[in-house]
Prior knowledge:
Distance between the termini: 26 Å
Strand content: 25-35%
Structural class: alpha+beta
CATH class of the largest domain: Alpha Beta
Shape: elongated
Strand order of the largest sheet: 3-4-10-13-12-11
Mean pLDDT: 82
CATH topology of the largest domain: Gyrase A, domain 2
Number of domains: 2
Number of strands: 13
Largest sheet: 6 strands, antiparallel
Order of helices and strands: EEEEEHEEEHEEHEEEHH
Number of helices: 5
Low-confidence stretches: 1-13
Amino acid sequence: MDETTVHGYEIGGAPLVGLAEGRTHWGRSPNGRLELREDGLLPQLSVRAGTAAAEGVRAAGMPLPERVGGVAREQGRLLLALGPNEWLALGVGAETDAGAEFGARLQEAMAGEHASVIDVTGQRTAITVRGRDATRILAHGCALDLDERAFPADTCAQTVMEGVGVLIVRRTVDDFLLLVRSSFAEHFAAWLDDAATEIWAEALAAE
């Protein structure tokens, strides 16, 4: 697989905050069962619209999730349904049009409707947690039931982990994207590093 993409998501071009610096357990564990990676400040647009205006999202080239908590994908973009009339459009990679161009198309499609499209890219830092032990490490601080039957792929939810508000997106069975308020990102990264200690120790002991 191209190292610049993960399950169709571009990871190049996003500004990094430097969360992995000085962390012992970031990167890929020795047995490959866990990977912690910072994806940086990915382009993010907050979209609020009434039922009629929501058609503007489709007109801009993005399908709507079928339910609150659902995730729709289209051409390297994600649309997360945070509420009945609230979505977060997430474009991965600075080269995609999920930032300014996609936002302009949304504004045009929703002209005259009761709706808003706001660039909130700087609000959240993106972190990938993936591998066979991904759910294990997240279970240390997540009150959500992460069993695949309760929280399947293409599902998102807002929760609190280690006292930090986190928007968690399940991309595949063992691949999660965490969106963390940037002001809490360092604190959350330190907690993840500590939570991964046991997993890394087991991997090293098995070598």
